[in-house]
Structures are given as C-alpha cells and as structure tokens.
Specification:
- This protein is an alpha+beta fold and about 375 residues long.
- It folds into two domains: about 90 residues, NE0471 N-terminal domain-like, CATH 3.30.2020; about 260 residues, Double-stranded beta-helix (4-Layer Sandwich), CATH 3.60.130.10.
- It contains nine helices and 21 strands.
- Strands 7, 8, 9, 10, 12, 19 and 21 form a seven-stranded mixed β-sheet that branches.
- Strand 5 and strand 6 form a beta hairpin.
- Helix 6 packs across helix 7 and helix 7 packs across helix 8.
- It binds fe (ii) ion (FE2).
- The site of fe (ii) ion has 4 residues, from loops.
- Fe (ii) ion (FE2) binds next to loops.
- One of its GO terms (biological process) is carnitine biosynthetic process.
Length: about 375
C-alpha cells in the first residue's frame, strides 16, 4: 500500500512524494474538482454533487496536511477542505507517461490457436464467459461452439453481455443466397475483407455471426486484424499512415427506404496516438472529397493499405461450422468470405455495442 512521505504546497498546487519515490504534482483546480470528501461525492453512487461553475474563481491553496491515509487540502477563498485517500491520489496522478497497452496483434498463424469457447460453459461459468469476452477485447474476436442451430440464437449470444443494436436490416440479419439480393453479402460471391457499416454514425462496435448451415464447397471465413495491418503501415510507411489517419472520407449506403451517410478516417487514432478504429469497405466507400492537392497521395496510401490487407501473413482463414458463432470487434477485425457454389449456406448476424461488453467484462474481472 502506497503512502505519502512528504507533501509540499504553494498557491497553485500540491507536490506529493509517495513512499515508492514517485513525485507527482496536483493543481488547485484539479484537486478542488476531484474532491473525494462527503460533501463532494454521493455516498451511494460516487457521482459528483456540484457543478464546476459553483466553485470560487480563485482556487489557490492555503494548506495541505496528511492525516493517516488521507491528504487534506484547504482552499484560500472559502476555507473549504478537500479530502483524498492517498491510494486514490496515487492511482489518479496525471503528470506521468500513460502506459499504452498494445492489443494482441495476430495474423494467419492464429489458425492453430483460435479462441474457441463452449456456449453452455460461457452461459454457466463466469470464468469461461470472462475468457470469451477477453478474447473479443484483446484479440478482437472470440468464437463460441455448440450454439444450438436455432434461429435467433445470435441475439441470445449478444444478450450474454449487452444488448442487440437494431438497424434498418432488422434486429438480426440473414446471410444466405437470395434471389434479388439487396447486398452482395446475400449472394454466393466471395467478399473482400471489410468492416461493416462505416456509413453509420456511430459505426456498430461489435458484430456477431452465427453459422446455422455451413457450405461444404467453400464460404470459408476470412479475418484480418486491422490494427496489425495499420501498425505495420505506421512502421513501413509513416507518411501513408498519416494520410489515412488525418483525412476523413465519406461512406454511403442507399436502399429502398434508407440513405445512410457518414464520414470518418480509414485509420482512427485516439489523443495518445493509439489506433482505435479501422474503417474499410470497398462497397460503400463514397467518392472521396479531399482537397485536390491531397488526392493523389491519399489514393497511393489507400491502395497501399488495401494491398496490405491481402498479404497472406495477415489473412486468417478458417471454416465457421454449424453451431459456431463468432463475436468480433467491427472497428478492428475486417471480415470476408471465400465464394461458394450453389449449395446452401446460412448465417444469422446482429450488431451490438462495445461499451456494454467492456462494462460486463470489467465487472467480471473485478469479481474474479
Ligand atoms: Fe460484412
């Protein structure tokens, strides 16, 4: 348990020396806004009880005292004392490098160690359920087997961790050969790897696909770890990587009663430079509308990324068999399939949101 060896203060903030030697600076406004005392946070839900506008304009500090495992900070303007458990202060220190935990990047080699879990065990056993959700979070996908080959089970699987996200395709959608297909997915043609629905805002974070009838003559699943390809592009061609991150491009889907449009970058970074999303869908990419002077270089970068997606070392292929169900991160893992002949093939799919999966997983991890 970390403790405080020394505390120094001036009007602007507090400098804390923790028992492990870490020295951290906390500013007056931050300390007052994050007051952990009883008058500042609700006892039951820990939510903040005041608005930032209610604080005095002057948030200069008058004193800082350590009592047992707490730090008390007094403010000059109104004499208010904010209280902080030392361990909380340590966990929330902000003048440091934030660690970037890279996800488990993978490629074709994963074929021999696919993350597969038994459906009944996932339902009954917290640890197995946690392992399935961890696979989706860390590797971008996790497969269930022995899922009953009954219609609608794909929604039941989404309800294990969250809620089905209904769209204009319905609560679930059928992936099988159709006579007048509204989408290439409903033919027997092969499908290039892609992320689904980049024309939505927000893009569905998760997709689930349940195989009810597999085809003996093809229709194999292709998966590509978009984060792995994007990280490789960042290393091999930083300029091309930058173009795909910095410029937003349009996507569109038009159906009988829908006209969905959204813009976004092919590779999306967060404020710390970490890749958080990939959008790639050859079928629904709308005419790019970048400034004329950027178009040529952008297309070079776009074509390079598209070619990299087809590199054999990135392409994971396997056959989703009857009763298998795959949940995957639709903003990381690109999916596609090989073509198949005239025979039957039937999958059902649905979308869900990633935040509820991550929330369910955090709760399970905290209990374990
Ligand atoms: Fe798709």
């Amino acid at each position: 348990m970390v403790s405080l060896n020394e505390v120094m203060h001036d009007q602007q903030g507090v400098t804390a020396v923790f028992s492990d030697g870490t020295v951290s600076r906390f500013h007056g406004a931050w300390l007052r806004d994050n007051d952990r005392g009883q008058s500042a946070r609700h006892a039951d839900n820990d939510q903040r009880l005041f608005d930032i506008t209610e604080l005095p304009d002057d948030l200069s500090i008058e004193g800082a005292v350590v009592t047992d495992d707490h730090l008390d900070v007094a403010f000059a303007a109104d004499g208010h004392v904010a209280r902080f458990p030392v361990s909380w202060l340590f966990d929330n220190r902000y003048d440091r490098e934030h660690e970037t935990v890279l996800p488990d990047l993978w490629g074709a080699h994963l074929k021999t160690s696919l993350p597969v879990f038994d459906f009944s065990r996932v339902l009954e056993d917290d640890r197995t359920r946690m392992a399935w959700l961890q696979a989706v979070r860390d590797q971008g996908f996790g497969i269930l087997e022995n899922v009953p080959c009954e219609e609608g089970m794909v929604c039941r699987a989404a309800e294990i961790f969250g809620y089905v996200r209904e769209t204009n395709y319905g609560r679930l959608f059928e992936v099988r050969s159709e006579e007048n297909p509204v989408n290439l997915a409903y033919t027997g043609l092969g499908l290039n790897v892609h992320t689904d629905n980049p024309y939505r805002d927000p893009v569905p974070g998760l997709q689930l696909l349940h195989c009810l009838i597999s085809n003996p003559d093809g229709g194999d699943t292709l998966l590509v770890d978009g984060f792995h390809v994007a990280e490789t592009l960042r290393r091999e061609n930083p300029a091309a990587f930058g173009l795909l991150c910095e410029n937003w491009v349009p996507f569109r889907y038009r159906g009988d009663s829908s006209d969905l449009q959204a813009r976004g970058p092919i590779i999306q970074l967060n404020d710390r430079g970490r890749i958080i999303a990939v959008r790639y869908n050859n079928r629904s990419a709308a005419p790019f509308d970048l400034p004329a002077e950027k178009m040529e270089a952008y297309y070079d970068a776009y074509r390079l990324f598209a070619k990299m997606l087809h590199r054999p070392e990135f392409e994971l292929t396997f056959k989703l068999t009857d009763g298998q169900l795959m949940a995957f991160d639709n903003q990381r893992v690109l999916h596609g399939r090989k073509g198949f002949g005239g025979g039957k093939r039937h999958l059902q799919g649905c979308y869900a949101d990633k935040d509820s999966l991550l929330s369910a997983l955090r709760v399970l991890e905290a209990q374990s």
